[in-house]
Specification:
By secondary structure, the protein is α/β, with parallel strands linked by helices. The protein has helices at 14-25, 42-46, 58-68, 81-86, 88-109, 142-161, 187-197, 216-228, 249-257, 271-278, 287-293, 301-315; strands at 4-7, 30-34, 50-52, 72-75, 112-114, 117-118, 165-166, 168-170, 172-174, 201-203, 211-215, 240-241, 245-247, 265-267.
Length: 317
């Protein structure tokens, strides 16, 4: 990777990924692609180049790729799970029609493309415990349908045209920097804010609902490490199971209570979020990612909790 375009650079993952890529590859070599109304701010704006990149407009993508001599595209444009259910047509337009535009530009200009999938690509018929890398994927949400299609379309462009496509199935991602924006796993971020603010937390997900999660530093490292990996060793390109931890709401609550003993939590289950969560795996088998490109997370639940609480105390002073 020499010249990198991050599409969706002001989003939950994109804003932090752009800064991490600039740290590793140089500020001037990483372009922050954004849409009107979501302009970069602060350090993200000041540290390197940015450009309007509407993923639904192939000509705009092509112009940016040509101007900045892009060789690698991180395509992070997508609606999150709950939002996608309320706007299914838009979810498809951004997630699939937009991906088609990216892949076509990549085919013509020889770019590598990273497009993340998700644990949402699985469905109720998928084995929920230690979910295999290769298994049935029959999601019933528009979010999940677009993610499965993302995997298949990316594979198609690799097999037919030789486009270097790669991706991971992200679990829920927890960050101390960016706020969540409409995902089923958002509670696992919100709960830390409540703990630091001294507020009682109302959990929208039922007790004993396990989902895979990951701390943002591990997610960023996964996205970059996969794109840096030796292509000859990759068997499962689109997309790799990756995980760092699996827990239910009671487990994360009790872990926070180790450091904030007066913290309280109650339940008020959101039917839509619960329905989506119930269709997702409890835990993933990420053996293929570990074997093919050396995936290995650095954070578990306890080390993440300590770091989240420490960082949020400083942030919310």
């Amino acid at each position: 990777m020499k010249n990198i375009l991050v599409i969706g650079a002001t989003g939950q993952i994109g804003s932090e990924l752009t800064m991490e890529l600039r740290k590793r590859y140089g500020n001037s070599n990483v372009v922050a692609g954004y849409i009107q109304g979501a302009e970069p701010k602060g350090e993200l704006k000041d540290s390197g180049p940015s450009a309007i990149v509407d993923i639904t407009d192939a000509t705009v993508i092509e112009n940016v790729v040509k101007y900045y001599k892009i060789d690698t595209i991180y395509n992070l444009a997508a609606l999150l799970s709950v939002v996608a259910e309320s706007k299914p047509k838009l979810a498809w337009k951004i997630g699939i029609d937009g991906l088609w535009n990216v892949l076509e530009v990549a085919r013509v200009y020889g770019c590598a493309v990273f497009t993340p999938s998700s644990i949402g690509s699985f469905g109720t018929d998928t084995p929920h415990i230690n979910t295999p890398q290769d298994t049935i994927q029959r999601p019933r949400t528009m979010y999940g349908i677009t993610k499965v299609t993302t995997e298949l379309l990316s594979d198609y462009y690799f097999n037919k045209y030789g486009v270097d496509t790669r991706g991971v199935r992200f679990p829920g991602i927890i960050s101390n920097v960016t706020l969540p924006g409409g995902g089923t796993t958002d509670y696992a971020v919100d709960i830390y804010y409540s703990a630091i603010k001294g507020e009682s937390f109302v959990c929208p997900i039922a007790k004993d609902t396990f989902m895979d999660m990951m701390y943002m530093p591990d997610a960023l490292n996964a996205a970059i490490s996969l794109m840096e990996a030796d292509a000859s060793k990759l068997i499962h390109r689109n997309a790799f199971n990756i995980t760092a931890m699996s827990f239910d709401p009671d487990m994360i609550y009790k872990n926070i209570c180790k450091y904030a003993p007066n913290f309280e939590m109650t339940y008020n289950v959101d039917p839509l979020k619960q329905k989506i969560a119930d269709s997702w795996p409890d835990s993933l088998d990420d053996t293929c990612a570990r074997e093919e490109w050396g995936w290995n997370p650095s954070y578990n639940l306890d080390s993440m909790t300590q770091d989240m609480l420490e960082k949020l105390k400083l942030k919310l002073k």
